[in-house]
Design goal:
Elements (H helix, E strand, L loop, with lengths): L112 E12 L8 H19 L12 E8 L2 E5 L14 E5 L4 E10 L8 H22 L3 H12 L5 H5 L3 E5 L4 E2 L13 E3 L8 E3 L6 H5 L1 H4 L4 H8 L5 H5 L7 E4 L4 E4 L24 H8 L5 H8 L11 E3 L12 E3 L3 H4 L18 H8 L5 H9 L6 E4 L4 E4 L16 H8 L5 H7 L12 E4 L4 E4 L23 H5 L7 H4 L15
Antiparallel strand pairs: 1-5, 1-6, 1-7, 2-5, 3-4, 8-9, 10-11, 12-13, 14-15, 16-17
Helix pairs in contact: 1-3, 9-10, 12-13, 14-15
Length: 617
């Protein structure tokens, strides 16, 4: 017998109706043919509705006299009358539309235009939102022209079309989002509006128009036209993110406004996003399913909700209020909340920034290769997405120096460091120095640079003197600063071994704690005090003429007061005083030190020669 427990007739189908002309005499036979191939698991059934077979006798001729009033049958006749009525069936139009469409089409087709709207966003590495009103307007105009050029809406574009429109939706806006409901029935109630900062500096829309084949815009040709129009808008914009096209066009358009200096545009970066699913002005009419177009894609495991509920599994279509959603966000929140909600809402990525711990920088949430900064689709929850790389670096890479992290995330080759100073012997630092170095690239900015600072543990100082004072307090600050800047030092340092003073430009000292002086005379006077200034200067190679001080001092060998000047007595020449000789402003003060010598003899009358090292004449 038949094993009924092993078979089930629980599939779904549509009711089908067939009619045919029968034989007037004899038996009429109906044949049913079904195909059941490539499937040994599921059975095929044919179900016939009870009492559904009926034979109808047609009249052989029309009645000889028509009725005086039209019939009031509930159902229409099976076939139209052979000739139209002489006048309309109603004296005036109905005050409300009929509950169902007419059985006959209108004589002229309905003309319905479908508008495909694509949204997108842009941001640049410069904070547009602090611009002046004039500069904001100029940036907005440049961005709009750039979008028009990309999709062929611009006046000078080769593909310009009257059916293409681009607009700036918002500049530095606050985002107003609706808390969407989870089902069709509850979505008819009130919705809560949430206001929060936008993740993008500028939002734009582009739109294309075509005429639908059907008034409902739900034919196969309408679907192909919709996909084609959406692709013509999304494709060029998305492609520009993966090349220099967007940056090149936007830079040129900003420069053409005359509001922005070329220096601003040399090293800035731009990133953005574009919607993959278009918004349609006319929703293709598929009944209730057109109100709830989104369903979770579990069949192909795409990780998102798909649009087009007519393609949803049958059990979802039969219970749309439980399974289907009116918007993508609500569907994603219900079925892919948490770790995958961002990927569900943004199949091609949100375009926002997230941290790549492997690279220790921040990347954008988009498929690898589809944009300059793309690091792949983010797997974290949306709280880990940021509107710009600086915010991402600051939050998720706190040990990285934020300027360096931001520049390298933006692949900014113009970044030259802060030019501030830090100690050059930091652990792990590639370029070692015993003084301070600057935060810059030595190849581009000179030998005083120690490389670009990457980590926040390195302390930076505005000046070399401040850095030296903090980290090399045992050094002479003048020498430390000069060596840090790799600049020649026009000062003198004492070489006490050789009893002379050395010009640091000629022979830089290696002893950075040594005292340095502004002149040879001062160096000789204070540091080589066992020689006279004149002799020390001569040994040091200083042939410059000293200026007379006209100061008096005691020549103890001759017991006379002499004067530091050239000429007749009491002048004895320049720089002849020994370091220990005390100087006096007047001859009286000097002679007071020789109170046993008569005053007329104290002034060294007749003395006009210089002393030798022993003080003899």
């Amino acid at each position: 017998g038949i094993l009924y427990p092993l078979i089930e007739a629980d599939g779904f189908t549509n009711s089908l109706e067939a009619s045919a002309t029968t034989n007037n005499v004899g038996w009429n036979t109906m044949k049913l043919a079904v195909g059941d191939t490539c499937d040994a698991d599921l059975d095929t059934w044919v179900l016939l509705e009870r009492n559904s077979f009926a034979c109808r006798e047609p009249t052989t001729s029309p009645s000889t006299a028509p009725s005086l009033v039209p019939s009031t049958s509930i159902a229409p006749t099976a076939a139209p009358t052979k000739s139209p009525s002489a006048s309309p069936t109603t004296a005036s139009p109905t005050t409300s539309p009929t509950a169902s469409p007419s059985s006959l089409p209108s004589l002229q087709p309905s003309v319905v235009d479908q508008i495909i709207i694509i949204g997108g966003s842009l941001s640049i590495s410069v904070d547009v939102c602090v611009f002046s009103d004039a500069d904001k307007s100029a940036f907005s105009a440049a961005a709009l022209l750039t979008v028009k050029q990309l999709v062929g809406c611009a006046d000078d574009a080769e593909l310009s079309s009257d059916n293409c429109v681009a607009e700036i939706a918002a500049l530095c806006p606050l985002t107003r989002r609706l808390k969407t409901s989870s089902s069709y029935s509850s979505s008819r109630g009130l919705q809560e509006e949430i206001v929060q900062p936008n993740d993008w500096q500028l939002d734009f829309t582009v739109a294309a128009t075509f005429t639908c084949e059907f008034a409902s815009c739900n034919s196969a040709i309408d679907a192909v036209s919709t996909d084609s129009a959406a692709g013509s808008l999304v494709g060029p914009i998305a492609a520009s993110f993966g090349s220099d096209d967007l940056l090149t066009r936007l830079s040129a358009n900003m420069l053409d406004t005359g509001n922005f200096a070329p220096d601003l545009l040399l090293c800035f970066a731009v990133w953005g996003r574009v919607d993959s699913n278009p918004n349609l002005e006319v929703t293709p009419d598929t009944g209730l399913l057109s109100l709830l177009p989104y369903y979770p894609d579990w069949e192909f495991d795409s990780g998102t909700c798909l649009q087009g509920a007519e393609n949803a599994p049958r059990y979802m279509q039969l219970d749309p209020e439980s399974w289907l959603y009116s918007d993508l966000a609500g569907c994603c929140a219900r079925y892919f909340g948490g770790w995958n909600e961002n990927a569900c809402n943004n199949v091609d990525g949100s375009g926002l920034w997230y941290v790549s711990h492997a690279q220790e920088l921040c990347v954008t949430d988009c498929r690898v290769g589809s944009g300059q900064f793309c690091g792949g689709l983010a797997q974290d929850i949306s709280d880990d997405l940021y509107s710009n790389p600086r915010s991402c670096c600051n939050t998720d890479l706190p040990w990285r120096f934020i300027e360096h992290c931001e520049a390298f995330s933006l692949q900014n080759t113009c970044y030259r460091g802060t030019m501030k100073y830090h100690r050059g012997d930091n652990e792990g630092w590639p370029i070692k120095s015993n003084v301070c170095v600057r935060d810059c690239d030595p190849v581009r900015d000179g030998a005083s640079c120690g490389g670009l600072v990457e980590d926040t543990y390195i302390e930076l100082w505005d000046t070399a003197e401040a850095c030296c004072s903090e980290h090399h307090e045992w050094m002479n600050p003048v020498l430390c600063a000069a060596r840090s800047d790799v600049q020649p030092l026009d000062m003198w340092w004492p070489d006490k071994i050789n009893s002379l003073c050395v010009h640091d430009i000629v022979t830089p000292t290696e002893e950075l704690s040594i005292q340095v002086y502004n002149s040879t005379a001062l160096c000789c006077s204070e540091a080589i005090n066992w020689l006279s200034v004149a002799d020390c200067r001569a040994r040091s190679g200083d042939t410059t003429i000293l200026a007379a001080t006209n100061m008096y001092y005691v020549d103890w060998g001759r017991e006379r007061c002499v004067q530091d000047c050239e000429g007749d007595a009491p002048c004895v020449g320049l720089g002849e005083a020994q370091p220990w000789d005390e100087r006096y402003a007047t001859a009286s003060e000097c002679c007071a030190m020789l109170d046993w010598i008569p005053r007329r003899e104290c002034f060294g009358v007749g003395v006009s020669v210089s002393r030798n090292l022993l003080g003899s004449t």
